[in-house]
Amino acid sequence: MVHHFFKGKDELFAHSVELPADPEQVLAGVADADPDRRAELIVRTVLRLWESPAQAALLAFLRGSIGSKAKTALLREMVERRVISRIMASVPGPPEEVALRGNLVATQVVGLMMVRYVVRLEPLASAAPDEVVQLVAHTVQRYLTGPLT
Q1: pTM (two decimals)
Q2: pLDDT for res 4
């Protein structure tokens, strides 16, 4: 039935939870960036999205998805297929390692979103975006291409 009414699970998910932003548009160009210099672009992209007028919808989406087992499961699948796969495109390494690196990048990005925009812990919540990029991008880059030990 999903394929009868929708192009696939991603479209079903988008309709069922009303995504506030299209991951393909938001992450345009990330997959083409040099993996050794991709972290800054990722962090800037996330901050630009969350500092945009879409912030209220993003907050509502995040809160609503976390509170529902079904929506959380759909969110997990969508994040793996449409977000992490784009962020990790062309990152060298065995598939298991690349998947782990993608999960580690997600810990930093989701943690940043939660602390800065949901919990609003200071001084991170009011730090300038350029300062946040300087503070966070190094860790994201290590998870992308640096040593994992």
Answers
A1: 0.82
A2: 66
